[in-house]
Amino acid sequence: MSAGLDRNAGNALDIGWTRAQFPSLQTQVNGQPAAFLDGPAGTQVPTQVMHAIQSYLMGANANTCGAFLTSRRTDEMLAGARAAMADFFHCKSEEVVFGQNMTTITFSISRAIGRELNAGDEILLTTLDHDANFSPWKALEEKGVVIRQVDIREEDCTLNLADLKSKLSEKTKLVAVGYASNAVGTINPVAEITRLAHAAGALVYIDAVHYAPHGLIDVKELDCDFLVCSPYKFFGPHMGTLYGKSKHLCCLRPFKVRPCTDQAPERWETGTQIHELIAGIGAAVEYIAELGRRVDLSVATRRDALAAAYRTTVAYERRLISRLIEGLQAIPGVRIYGITDPIRFGERCSTLSLSLGNHHPTTIASFLGERGIFTWDGNYYALNLTERLGVESQGGMLRIGLVHYNTLEEVERLLAALREFAAR
Ligand SMILES: Cc1ncc(COP(=O)(O)O)c(C=O)c1O
Prior knowledge:
alpha/beta, seven-stranded mixed sheet, four-stranded antiparallel sheet, binds pyridoxal-5'-phosphate
């Protein structure tokens, strides 16, 4: 399946065309093609994104709001990239904020929200989340804010919703939750959590960093207050983006310098932005839309094209993760953390973590790395989870992340290498 149409996968993902968009997939390691199974730490970038960055620097490089050509081009580029992200989130352009990365954006929003909180107010966090949706809120303990933590169900690494409900009260001012786990691939019921949080009078802050390459985001449908993700996890450059409801972006008070506009969303974008990379973000959204237009010729809008793309990639990734889990279950000593029942694959994305006997995850990752198979080891900043699972002191877990440019051949190569490792 290295070229041609894969007609069994959703609406005919053209894996040959897809892979041809990503020049780095041609990387070789010790005479073997590289298999990039490290998407959760950052995906590869299609040519369209590289061209957009280069073309901005060549023809539009300037600061904003100046009375000359390249500055006007910069303003136009920013408006275009914001409109692209608005289609991506399904919101208005003025509800899109750019920033250095998700972590930095979250610290900035948590400090602004913290300004409005009082001692005794509560924030609900989870054991499943990446630390970037934990520590920025925990820092508000300095103000007397009380942090409460939702546990997981250890057997399948899903959020314990009963625990969440029992910890929500009229004291809860904010619920911060991940859309999908970057460690074990669990997709959380964020629409339901948002409904519960709103009923209790709390705001909802969703970390969609890991979900963004795996599923269509619809903030209108979710009705969340904030949602944040990082374009470098969905085929774009190293930056972060935030959706915030207009009423919050207008009313909350950012920490900002006086001459900077007080208009939202710009009032949240402190200092000069990384314009060339923002140009790349617009192109990353366009890449996904182009994929959608190729699989569904009837799409009318960019939003429809994005939806068509995700319909196809979700189905394709489902086939990859199904085969991966089936193959792993046949290797003696492998323990998979998270959902493994195929009937429940709608509750997970194509990322998983595993342990193999008593082997240190770094040893396994190095063995695979020598063979050109790129995986991750450790806690990937999902520190509460690795501690809760009791694996933090053993070096964490080995993480395998599959995105739509990966192939069944790569999954088979990985399985063969793990079998070889296990049999040593
Ligand atoms: C689920 C999740 N949330 C947050 C982050 C932090 O994102 P950033 O690197 O943009 O700060 C990551 C990064 O790995 C992540 O996987």
